[in-house]
């Protein structure tokens, strides 16, 4: 692995690796060992990077589209070539099991970057409306702030469309899992991206993140993370009236209708709840089932959960690694304890560490049954492997419960027919719904209703985020 002690842990500004003041320890959550340190950048490093991005903007925006697309594809090739190194970096910095890191953590950015590169040519960059020529132009300098749960995917979901659009970027990756961003910076160098077009500044949210969001030369902030941090980004960005795109948290409902294939609904439902140790914004953490099927579904889910081996993320057989940090482990445990205190029934798991895992940020995959909509575990995002099974009386009540949180990011419906599933999906106030296990589509718009965010990522809609629209009258 190249990460750890070398240059890739420095800031990447204006095409050079730059050391900075301060340091942030990167801790492997499985071993509890410090594996690297990155600098703790602040307003000064952000300013240097933003000025570099500003200088690089006119030339990059004027680079022919075909060349920008070719560069994004070259970066994609670089990711493919270094996929094992990237997967190992992600496993080390945030605990994703090796198998999942290879297939999904690295697989998704490869798919989404291909998606946006592929649609660039057919995208309507210019359009005639009456006597007007309407042109789409890059918005300018983009400040990107990303979380730790998918350290490459969340970055590429912003960087690839921004580069295709003709924008330049300053990225502030998560301080919990910052190492993979360094590998990506190196890949952009190898791909021949001109200096200043893509920059990485390490640091904490309140220091580097806020400095980026409020910088007057940043035209847009694209943020992925929690609701409180997103709210703060929106506040500090408001002073300069810049565009803010927010991809925030979720509390997604999986509605299982009375005529659904229960085996499929429970298997996929649990898989989507426990995905990446439950540290996934779209996780289907609420399983809504007809009252009459509640006990049967709980039994099936408990049986299924036994297949989720918890342990060392580098082991091939591991399906759930440690939480990304000890702080996250404490947070998840706190919610599990609160669920018990509020009267939800523990069907599997519970507070405390899994047997034999005394060291590392491990939690027990947990299933609560008989969860009521007013309970904290039914309302708040836990971000760990915790499923709440919730009974409902009829379809109307199922939709009402599904919509009764501040979030609206994702969801699912399992129904006897696709038509019935789609009808229920349309009633859900959420940005994505999978019917009967519909597969992830890297070209489909991705984003939230309500407090799950503003704006959309991926595909054509994701590209539009990074564009301004100009009308020229003829
Ligand atoms: P977080 O909000 O703690 O941190 C995310 C990023 O924001 C980090 O880089 C952090 O340093 C930065 N940040 C924190 N405070 C800031 C501030 N005041 N100003 C500017 N930047 C600040 O989130 P996390 O714990 O890293 O990630 C988990 C959260 O991310 C969950 O809520 C999850 O649902 C959400 N998420 C959403 C999506 C999506 O696409 N909707 C995807 C992944 C994760």
UniProtKB/TrEMBL annotation:
Membrane-crossing residue ranges in chain numbering: none
Fetch the InterPro entries from UniProt.
Ald_DH/histidinol_DH, Ald_DH_C, Ald_DH_CS_CYS, Ald_DH_CS_GLU, Ald_DH_N, Aldehyde_DH_dom
The enzyme's E.C. designation: 1.2.1.3
Quickly give the catalysed reaction. an aldehyde + NAD(+) + H2O = a carboxylate + NADH + 2 H(+)
Is the keyword Methyltransferase in the record?
no
Q: One Pfam family name from the record?
A: Aldedh
Uppermost EC category: oxidoreductase
The record's keywords, sorted A to Z, are: Oxidoreductase
**Residues annotated as domain Aldehyde dehydrogenase:** 22-472
- The positions flagged as active site in the entry are 247
Q: Organism's domain of life?
A: Bacteria
Region of interest (Disordered), residue spans: 309-329
Q: Indicate the family of this protein.
A: Belongs to the aldehyde dehydrogenase family.
Its recorded name reads aldehyde dehydrogenase (NAD(+))
What is the originating organism of this protein? Answer: Actinomycetospora chlora
